[in-house]
Amino acid sequence: MPKKIDHEERKEKILQTALKVFAREGYRDSNLSLIATECGVSRPTIYQYFKDKEEIYYYAVKLVTGRMFNKYVAYVWSTDQDLVSRITTICLDIMQEANEHEGELTSLVDVMLQMKKEGRDFNEIILRRTAKLTILFKRLLRMGVKTGDIVDCDVNKVADHLLMLLESSCFQVAFLDTFDMQLSKQLISTYLDFYRA
């Protein structure tokens, strides 16, 4: 009897292997044959899931951001923390996740930089994938202003500032050996405390 294949599990294994290969070899020098060999599958098997390495990249961004967003939505509506603390917890967790997955993050950012040099820009996909997080921040900020937990503020600007601070931290995790995680976490906490009523 043939072995039953879990296609989602296999797709994720290909993704994880690809990210390791990208990190080690660089995106430009990586290819599907190398990924297939390291994954223990044939190249045609890779093509059943991804048409090229760019599609693997898109899938990685989609998978990571989707999982994180689902995690934060579940957390936000299941806790009785005040709204500033909820936003702070999400931001600090994103930074912690970035730090714990530094190699994969470096690889993803490296891919973006290499593709930008080739005239392709991944900005749109990143904006699309972070839009839900920005909307969540705005919703929590509006709720906080309405309940009096958060001072009256320009919700759109505050949400944009948070996203910029998070992007900056992730970039620094990926590329700067001198990055101080505690200092960055303190910066975000202090920034958000400023809006606490």
From TrEMBL:
Organism: Sphaerochaeta halotolerans
Entry keyword Mitochondrion: no
HTH tetR-type domain residues: 8-68
Any Pfam family matching the protein: TetR_N
Gene3D superfamilies xref list: Tetracycline Repressor, domain 2
The entry's DNA-binding region: 31-50
GO molecular function, one term: transcription cis-regulatory region binding
Name of the molecule in the record: TetR/AcrR family transcriptional regulator
InterPro entries reported for this sequence: Homeodomain-like_sf, HTH-type_TetR-like_transc_reg, HTH_TetR
Record keywords: DNA-binding, Transcription, Transcription regulation
PANTHER family: HTH-TYPE TRANSCRIPTIONAL REGULATOR PKSA (PTHR30055:SF226), HTH-TYPE TRANSCRIPTIONAL REGULATOR RUTR (PTHR30055)
Organism taxonomic ancestry: Bacteria, Pseudomonadati, Spirochaetota, Spirochaetia, Spirochaetales
